[in-house]
Design brief:
Helix content is about 45%, strand content about 10%. The protein is of the alpha/beta class.
Length: about 240
Amino acid sequence: MPFRLSDFDAVTFDVFGTLIDWEPAIVAFLRRWADGHDRSAPSDAELLMAFDRARAVFQAERPAYLYPDILRRCFDHIAAEFGIPADAATRDAFAASPHAWPAYADSHVGLATLQRHAKIGALSNIDDASLQSACRHLDIRFDILVTAERVGAYKPDWPHFHTAIADLEALGIPRGRILHVGQSLRADITPANRLGLTCAWINRPSRALGLSGEGAAQARPDLTVSSLAALVAMLTGEQAIA
């Protein structure tokens, strides 16, 4: 085993996709909307990948939009791509949907187990209010919180990472004692590599967001697992317990 939890003083996490299971909710929303207008609507995979491409474009724009506006622009982009009507009420409902996205079953227990031994942080491409909802779903209080709203940028841009590193350094934790964990190759693993951070890829089964696009093919995780529970077991040698 390459690492133990004793090698680190802090573990930072991507949130949506890594700890919050957003893909099924996104697909279900877009599926209901598309099927309501066109019985020959695009497949689930086509809708999801259209969302993935669109968010990468809008998240790169500066000054940065708040995440609800990213979702509104993604919705309009998907509607235009597939020729499906985009009404304002459905667009706004999509923008509010992060508040209802659920946590993975292993997220709370895994985070609580790690937090008994190390600081934990959230580095999320989201707005502050939506991350507060996610924390309620996770039933956890992170030691540091870095959002796109706070830093005015979206991963894979580096302000999230620079801010988290500075926050942890203020707690006496150097960069070499940080483990960063993410599901997105594009937004988390590749920039972590470039910044010299040790990183773990949680390759959740049947999840696709963030696994393609610019930089994804260059990602080189130091550790790959299929769940947070598996990561905790590898780091601690024990099963996560509540």
